[in-house]
Amino acid sequence: MKSFRKSILLGVAFLAMSITGCNNNAGGDTSKEPEKDPNEVSVFLLSGQSNMQGNSSCSATNLKKAFTDLGFEDYDEVVAGMKTVQSSVYCAGYGELDHTKLEKNSKLQSYTNAENQFAGKFIDTVPGFGNFNGKSGTNMGPEFGLAYALKDKATEEKPIFLVKMASNGSGFAQSGTKYNWPVKDANGNFPEINLYSTFAKPFLENNLKLIEDMGLKPVIKGWLWHQGESDCDGGTKTASYAQRLGDMVGQFREDFKDYARKGDGANIAFIDGMVYQGSNPKTAWTKPADMNAQKQQFADSNDMNFIVDTYANAEEKVDANELKPGNPGGDSMHYNTKSSLRLGMAYGQVIIDNNLLD
Fold it and tell me: Residues 166, 171, 177, 178: is their CA dihedral positive or negative?
C-alpha cells in the first residue's frame, strides 16, 4: 500500500488537513489518454448528510470574518457569484424521498430551481446553498469553499459543474427507509427505495442532461461525500460502514461509467471527509475514531478513493488545524463558517493535487 500526506496552504495560514489517497486495488485506467473532446467539462456529485447539505451560517458577518482570518481579499467578488463553477442543488430534510411533497419539510429543503426542484438548474456558485431554515441563503455547505478552490481551473464558457444532493440525518442503518443510503438485503440486492436510487441518481441524471443541452460533454470526475455521523455508534452500524460504502460506490461507478473518462467507472474518484473527532466535547455521536478508521479502510482499498482528514493532528492536539463545529456560524453537530469553507477547499485540493480535472 502506498499513501501520502500533504499540508494545505490556504491563504497565508498553514492549515494541516492531511489528504490521503491510497492504492491497494487497481483503480483508474492509466493507459494513454485519447484526445479530449473540446466540449468536455468536469462534473462532481456532492452527497451526504447535514454537514454536506449545509448548516453553516454564511451571513456577511461570519463569512467576511472567515475570509479575513484566512487572509483572503476577494470576498465581494466571489460572493457575487463564481461563474466558472456552476452549481445545481436539491437537498431534502430528514430523508424526505417524495420530491412532490415538499411542504412536509419545506424549511429544510434547498434547491436552485424553485419551479421544479428535482429537475435541477445550474447557477453561479454563491453562498447560501445549505438548509433554508425558513429563509433562503442563510446557510452553506462545503460547495462554496470547493468552488473557491476551483474557480481558476475553468472558464465561463466551459465551467466546472457541481451537483449537490444531500439529506439531513441520513445514514446506512437508520430505522425505516426514508433516511437510508442503500444497504443490501440478504440476497445481495438494494431495496427499491433509498436515497441513492430514488434521489441522488435521478437528480444527477437530470443535471447531466441539462449540461448536454448546453452543447457540452459532461464527464463525471468524482463523488464528494460527507456522511457518517448517523452511523457513528461504535457498534454494528460503524463496523459495516466500509462495506456498505463500497457497495454503493461500486454501484455508482457502474451506473455512470458512460460518463466517466474512457467509459470506465473505475476512473471516477470518490473523495470522503472524516467525521469530526476533535476537542469539542459537545458533539452528539460516539467513537468517531472508529468511524474514521472505517473511512480510512475504504480509502485504502482503491487508488481512486481519497479522504480528507478533518483533524490531521489529533495525536498532538493541535487545535489550530482542526475543522471545528460550533460558533461562529455552526452548532455542536455542524461546522462553523470558517471550517465549512476550509472543508470545501480541502476537497478542492484533493481534486487539484490528483489532477482529477485533466
Answer: negative
Fold of 8-24+40-353: Rossmann fold (3.40.50)
Note the pLDDT tens digit of each residue in 38-53: 999 999 999 999 999 9
> What cell does 153 get?
481551473
Q: Which of 265, 276, 272, 159 is nearest to 223 (CA)?
A: 272
- For residue 37 the three cell numbers come to 473532446
Cα 44 from Cα 295, distance rounded (Å): 20
The dihedrals phi and psi of 68, each to the nearest 5 degrees, come to -65, -45
* Each residue's pLDDT tens digit, 135-170: 567 899 999 999 999 999 999 999 999 999 999 888
- Round to the nearest angstrom and report the end-to-end CA distance of the chain: 25
Q: Would strands 217-226 and 40-48 be described as parallel, antiparallel, or unpaired?
A: parallel
Grid coordinates representing 357? 480535472
Please answer whether residues 122 and 218 qualify as being in contact, where contact means their C-beta atoms are separated by less than 8 angstroms.
Answer: no
Domain layout of the chain by residue ranges: 8-24+40-353
Interatomic CA distance for residues 72 and 129, integer angstroms: 21
Predicted TM-score (pTM) of the model is 0.89
34: cis peptide before it, omega within 30°? Answer: no
Q: C-alpha cell of 192?
A: 427499491
Cα 277 to Cα 283: distance, rounded to the nearest angstrom: 9
CA atoms of 141 and 347, how far apart (whole Å): 12
DSSP string for 63-78: HHHHHHHHT---HHHH
Beta bridge partners of 47: 225
